[in-house]
Design a protein that fits this description.
Layout: E1 5-10, H1 16-23, E2 31-33, H2 41-46, E3 53-58, H3 64-74, E4 79-84, H4 87-101, H5 107-110, H6 127-137, E5 143-146, H7 147-152, H8 154-165, H9 181-184, H10 188-200, H11 209-213, H12 226-235
Parallel strand pairs: 1-3, 1-4, 2-3, 4-5
Length: about 240
Amino acid sequence: MRPDIYFHVGAGRAASRWLQEQVFPRFRGVRYIPRNRFRQSAGIIATGGDLPVLVSRQLGYREFTPSVSWFARAAPTARPILVLRRHDGWLRSVYLREIKELRYVPFESFIDFERDAGVRPQASALFRERIRVLEEHFEHRPLVLFFDRLVANPQGFVRAIADYVGASYDETEIAFRPVNRSLATGNTGFCGRWAGAGRSRGGNAPSTPRAAGFGCGRDGSPGTSAWVSDAWRRSGS
């Protein structure tokens, strides 16, 4: 008899690595297949067993549909688990990673809301499309969780996943440290650095749509994220 299968489709900048390294390996009563064995998961599942199987893989926007399609052929009855993040916080994190690991580009050139001519295509942030792909490929609708809930209550977030997959765990074995320090501190550090950079160039503190998109106010304090949120509401993502 085939076991119940759960497929955590990890999104970038949504605590996927933390779940894969700190949480899932400590689940008891499930057979966890880590991200580095994803391509062997079909064969492992085929061996059967009594325990439910939890497969986890972080998928970028380019590989999302091909990888989901591949896994669905082996396990069409799998129950997907998807963690999403507000577009403003997600774009902020992705953009900061771009600056840190690759190169600096102005935010307006990083993602272009009007002409879609940026470094990162708008399609990479169409979260509704990811849900549609999962619904089309699997018999069960995905369990969609939100990063904000993880930041506010990590213990409750982990408990929700454990209850869903039927796992038990010892909470003392999991490192519940801040998942995203910029969110935990209200983005004050990032916004302050942005404001300082603007003043050092002889300009104003962040007041452009780019800065507003990061939730920064004119004085460098955390402000609203209306620009990014409104743009993506208009796009229907």
